[in-house]
């Protein structure tokens, strides 16, 4: 029996993920950018969504405003983690549909900066080639 060739990882099945190599990013469809992006207040300040002076304000008030603005999907009050909104196709709000590149790359949240060192399967990527 021939071994099964996996053309691309299944985002929901981490066992199909491929050991990460930096060169993979240039030929991928940005599948990692379809996963939920968790952000902390410092990330939201870096993105310019929250002003520095708001740091002392209750996070639930900030969350309510950002949900109304359509920037975050959820807020987990106990952990202080916000989840950024995704588009209808599950792409991150900041992923350019045509180029498949991050439009806020220099300001991106720590979750994105640290991928794939952290996440569902550290050191592995849900790589899908851009065919």
Task: Characterize the structure shown.
- With 131 residues, the protein is an alpha+beta fold.
- It folds into 2 domains: 77 residues, no CATH class; 48 residues, no CATH class.
- The protein is built from 3 helices and 5 strands; from the N terminus they run ββααββαβ.
- The protein has a 3-stranded antiparallel β-sheet. It has a two-stranded antiparallel ribbon with strand order 1-5.
- A hairpin with a 4-residue loop joins strand 3 and strand 4.
- The radius of gyration is 16 Å and the shape is elongated.
- It holds the Pfam family CxxCxxCC.
- This is Fe-S oxidoreductase.
Q: Identify the quaternary structure here.
A: single chain
Based on CA inertia axes, which overall geometry fits? elongated
* Derived structural class: alpha+beta
| Mean pLDDT value | 91
* Contiguous runs where pLDDT drops below 50 for at least 5 residues: none
If strands are numbered along the chain, what order do they take across the biggest sheet? Answer: 2-4-3
Q: What's the alpha carbon Rg, rounded to whole Å?
A: 16 Å
List the secondary-structure elements in sequence, H or E: EEHHEEHE
DSSP strand count: 5
Strand content: 5-15%
Helix fraction bin: 10-25%
CA(first)-CA(last) distance: 27 Å
Largest sheet: number of strands, sense, barrel closure: 3 strands, antiparallel
Number of discrete helical segments: 3
Number of discrete domains: 2
């Amino acid at each position: 029996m021939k071994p099964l060739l996996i053309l691309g990882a299944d985002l929901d099945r981490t066992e199909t993920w491929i050991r990460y190599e930096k060169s993979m990013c240039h030929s991928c469809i940005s599948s990692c950018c379809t996963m939920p992006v968790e952000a902390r207040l410092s990330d939201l300040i870096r993105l310019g969504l929250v002003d520095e002076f708001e740091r002392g304000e209750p996070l639930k008030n900030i969350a309510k405003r950002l949900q109304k603005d359509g920037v975050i999907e959820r807020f987990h009050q106990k952990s202080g983690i916000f989840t950024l909104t995704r588009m209808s196709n599950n792409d991150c709000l900041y992923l350019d549909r045509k180029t498949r590149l991050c439009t806020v790359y220099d300001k991106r949240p720590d979750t994105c900066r640290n991928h794939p060192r952290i996440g569902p399967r550290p050191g592995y990527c849900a790589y899908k080639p851009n065919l």
